[in-house]
Amino acid sequence: MKKHPTFSFTKTCFSVVFCCFWLLSLPACNDGREVNLTIPTEVYLVQAGLQTVGFPESGEPQAVLTVYKGGYNDDGVTVRLGISEYALDRYNEENATGYRMLPETYCTFDTRSVELGAKRWKANVTVTFRASELLAELPSGSEWVLPVAVTGISSGEVNADKSSVLLLLQIP
């Protein structure tokens, strides 16, 4: 008995189609897009490290610090900033410098606490220095540092390498 040619052709077509669908489905198993993926919150200061603050010809010296929330999640976080003598001591030790801490009475923060979340992942904080008091009370040519650090967060982690900024003022 002779086989019918249509049966062999149909079987071959079915096998080819099945193999194609099977091959196409392989990348769907792991396409690099994780469902419900979350990366924990990490907070840091963009300008971390030593930053020089210049004296403008008129007005008060200012430094704008950017607080950033990293991570892939919708978590809200409250970040608090403050003065950190520890950050200055660590910097002086690691870099063999002898910077002195500027007393906090010579500056003001526009805010010490910022709220970050899914739609607001960065915020600026402005530190303003009182130029008239600095120039009248501190010796000309001296260098002073205001060490600003992340002093607290409501959730998540603080990037230890970017947790503080040292604002260097060179008194003219």
Description:
By secondary structure, the chain is of the alpha/beta class. Helices cover 23% and strands 39% of the residues. The chain has helices at residues 5-25, 85-95, 131-137; strands at 39-45, 49-53, 62-72, 77-83, 100-101, 107-109, 113-116, 122-129, 143-153, 157-158, 164-170. The radius of gyration is 29 Å and the shape is elongated.
What labels would you give this structure?
single chain; 172 residues; alpha/beta; 6-stranded mixed sheet; 5-stranded mixed sheet; 3 helices; 23% helix; 39% strand
In terms of quaternary structure, the protein is single chain
User: What value does the Rg take, in angstroms?
Assistant: 29 Å
How many strands, which pairing sense, and closed or not: the largest β-sheet?
A: 6 strands, mixed
Distance N terminus to C terminus? Answer: 108 Å
- Mean pLDDT score: 86
Query: From the helix content, strand content and strand pairing, which structural class follows?
Result: alpha/beta
The share of residues in extended strands comes to: 35-45%
The tally of beta strands, per DSSP, is 11
Shape estimate: elongated
